[in-house]
Structures are given as C-alpha cells and as structure tokens.
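Help needed: design a sequence for this.
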C-alpha cells in the first residue's frame, strides 16, 4: 500500500483536516512527523484598529492537529511526533485510542504528566524525551495499565525513580517488556530491584545517570547469598543480552555483581568519576573480563573532558617532578626519579587504573583485592594506561569479544548507544 507509511520530513501541512481525511481514506497505519516544517510565528492584523499583533502559529498547529487526527483513529497504529507540548500528547491520547506506538522525542514542556497514557492501553511502544529536561508531575502508576507494552523509553525526566527507586514498582506489571530505557536513575531500592526481576522477557536495558556497587545502589545483606541490588536483580533475567550503563558511578563490588550477569552479550559502560577514578576503572576492567566467555561486544565510553583533565594532571605532575630534580641534591634527585617512574605518567591519552591491572588470571584478581586492603599509599599503586594499551590488554584478555574504546564529548554521551540488532 502506497500510503501505509507517511513521513513528513521537510514538508508542511496547511490544512490538517484535509490531511487527516486523506490519511483515513488511504488507511494509513504509520505517521511520522519528525523534522516536519512547522509554521512560523507571523503577525496578523487586528480587526479593531488595523494594527498588528503577534500570533504564535507554532502553538496553533498543535491544536489544529489534535482536532483533526481523530479522523485517522480507525487505522492509525504508530505516531512519531515532532516538536510538541504536553497538550498535543494529551490530545492524541484522547483521539487515537487504538495506537500501538507513540514516540515524542522533542517534548517542549517543563513538566511531564503521564496521566494521558491510561487512555491508550493498547500501546506496545512508548518513547518520551525532552531536549531540555522535564520535571515529573505525579507518579508513574498510569504506566501499569499498559500491560501489552514491549518497548519503553523515559529519559531526561528529573527524579524519575524517586529517592529509593520506589516509583519503578509499576515495572512488575509490564511483564512483556523487551526493551527498557530509563534516565535519572539516582538509586535502586528493594522495591525497584524486585520489580526488575519480573521482566523475564527483557532483552535490552539502558540506564542513565545512576550508581551501582555494593555501597552504591545495592542493598547490603549479612551474607553474599542474600545480597540484593541492581546487578544481582538483572542477573536473574534469562533473556537480558544487552546492558548500557551511561554516566554511572561505579562503586566497590561492581565487578563481582556484574560477573553474575552471564546472559549478557553486549555491554556499554560510560563511567563518571565522582571519586577514586582509578578504582572505578579497575572495576570496569575487571567486570568486563569476568564476562569474557559470554560477551560478544564490549564498549567503554570515555569523555573528552575526562581525558583533558587527566592530561592537565599528568603535565602538571611531570613539570613538578622535573622542577624537584633540577633543584634537589643527588639523593633527592634519585628519590624524585623513583617516584616519577613509579607513577608511570605517559604523555598520550590515558586513564588512571589501580594496580595490578586486571587480567584473565583469577590469581591477579585475588592479589589486587588483598593489596587494596593492605596498601596505604593509593597513588603509588595507580598506573596511567594509554588508551591504545588499554584496548590491547582487554582484547588479549577477551579474545572472543569485540572491544571498543569510544571517545566523545560529555554532551554526546546521551546519544551514544549500541545498535539494536538480533543477538
């Protein structure tokens, strides 16, 4: 059917009623309004004194669209919206009850209320995003009505999960979810972790801006068997093959918890460095290597800002050591050279990693844990590893895994992902 899918990129609609009648007559099922040309704001003459006043036609198009779109409700199943406000989402929900997919990735609103989703319970896909961020109004309970949902993406929503992740309890009702994206994941309490265990069909999970580790996002138990937490919950999902942790703070025990997620085949990690960056990098390396038997693809994201900060530190430290060597006695010069050599500060792009560097050998891991408890001078055990060497170490330790180290500005981390392919 020629009109089954209609895309409006670089096009503009003047008559929404006529447009909607044409779509209905041709039984259009998919309507894509992304990158559609919107009317410009133009002055219109006043009927009283002939003067001009501003009339924002950019807002008016949404009202006209909502009044007309109900004509397509019999056949329209998927709708991708362009820049719009909450009024458009609410109007669409009231007019098109049979939609199975609704995507709005450029919402122009400071607040987000999800009350409207209760009117379109046939949804199998829902993606909501704002370029400037939104504040959640109310809670997420209406999402529990979307029992047929397979793909859910809620990003750039501030305080999405709540203080302890209690707002994620709705996930226990969405047992058919196959793909899930959540942003602003401050913490995951027991309620959230229990809800995750219900997602037995979940294949892909992306979490943004959160924290994970034994003391970060985990529930500490008296013994390891009773340990609960995000990664422990995810390890119980048999279908989960792709995990993306974007701008996550990596804490102690991350590698041990990640090692339990043996179903993972594709892993993306972009860590943030709130404190102890060398320890975080060690844990990322160790965790990935522990999954070397199952991982097919491992991507480690590093921001330009982090690399620049490390470069400035290395340059400053090298200059300090050279200054000390030039103005010191012979004994002090030897000591300065020893410290400089121990720090191993290269001039190329590098990351600080706690020594000894993780490898495929379990003995090396045990040795690293013992030294972590006994060694007092943390900096003396930090090695600055060039990215090229880091890639080589990981590739050697994970021979069956495609390893990628990707550099990007921080602003691009939210767009960085792994392509959705059949695994």
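Sure. Designed sequence:
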């Amino acid at each position: 059917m020629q009109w089954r899918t209609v895309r409006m990129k670089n096009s503009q609609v003047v008559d929404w009623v006529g447009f909607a009648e044409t779509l209905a007559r041709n039984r259009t099922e998919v309507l894509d309004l992304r990158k559609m040309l919107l009317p410009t704001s133009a002055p219109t003459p006043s009927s009283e004194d002939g003067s001009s006043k501003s009339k924002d036609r950019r807002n008016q198009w949404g009202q006209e669209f909502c009044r007309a779109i109900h004509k397509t409700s019999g056949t329209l199943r998927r709708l991708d919206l362009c820049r719009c406000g909450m009024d458009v989402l609410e109007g669409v929900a009231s007019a098109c009850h049979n939609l199975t997919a609704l995507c709005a990735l450029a919402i122009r609103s400071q607040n987000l209320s999800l009350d409207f989703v209760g009117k379109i319970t046939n949804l199998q896909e829902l993606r909501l995003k704002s370029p400037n961020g939104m504040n959640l109004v109310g809670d997420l309970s209406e999402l529990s009505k979307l029992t047929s949902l397979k793909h859910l993406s809620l990003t750039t929503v501030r305080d999405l999960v709540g203080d302890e992740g209690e707002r994620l309890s709705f996930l226990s009702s969405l047992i058919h979810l196959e793909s899930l994206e959540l942003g602003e994941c401050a913490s995951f309490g027991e309620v959230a972790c229990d809800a995750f265990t219900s997602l037995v069909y979940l294949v892909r999970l992306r979490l943004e801006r959160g924290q994970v580790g034994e003391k970060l996002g985990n529930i500490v138990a008296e013994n390891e068997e009773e340990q609960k937490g995000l990664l422990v919950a995810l390890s119980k999902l048999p279908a989960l093959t792709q995990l993306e942790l974007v701008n996550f703070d990596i804490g102690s025990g991350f590698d041990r918890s990640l090692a339990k997620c043996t179903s993972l085949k594709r892993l993306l990690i972009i860590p943030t460095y709130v404190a102890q960056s060398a320890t975080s990098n060690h844990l990322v390396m160790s965790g990935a290597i522990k999954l070397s038997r199952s991982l097919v693809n491992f991507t480690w994201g590093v921001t330009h800002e982090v690399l620049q900060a490390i470069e400035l530190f290395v340059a400053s430290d090298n200059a300090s050591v050279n200054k000390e060597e030039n103005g010191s006695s012979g004994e002090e010069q030897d000591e300065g050279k020893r410290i400089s050599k121990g720090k191993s500060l290269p001039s190329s792009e590098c990351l600080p990693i706690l020594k000894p560097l993780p490898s495929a050998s379990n003995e090396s891991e045990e040795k690293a844990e013992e030294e972590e408890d006994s060694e007092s001078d943390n900096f003396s055990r930090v090695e600055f590893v060039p990215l090229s060497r880091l890639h080589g170490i990981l590739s050697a330790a994970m021979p069956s895994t495609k390893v990628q180290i990707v550099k990007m500005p921080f602003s691009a981390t939210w767009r960085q992902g792994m392509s959705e392919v059949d695994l």
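The longest strand covers residues 204-212.
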